[in-house]
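Table 4 source record.
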Amino acid sequence: MKMTMEYYRQIMDVVGTSVDGIGVFIVVGGALVATLRLALHRAQSTGNYYALYRQDVGRAILLGLEFLIAGDIIRTVVVAPTLQNVVVLGLIVLIRTFLSLSLQLEIEGKLPWRQNH
């Protein structure tokens, strides 16, 4: 039984790390795609391409943060559920949630819970 639990924790550690990797890949890939779109739009028009670029990069960061939070939760709750790790996880989630809300406000000009008027 103890060996099965240890094996399960190792698998969840790999899963959590993989989810983190996906989050990093989304941020980096999204920034690259946004940069390519910026280059194409800038060459084609004289519009407000900088605002579009910031929105594209912001969306990539937001999505990547969601995956990074999920990876942290998986590793903390399943792999090492000590009080210290849970407190650190709570602080990380608070910081990343604040970043997400800030980015959401900057990208869309409104908080996520506000309706369009």
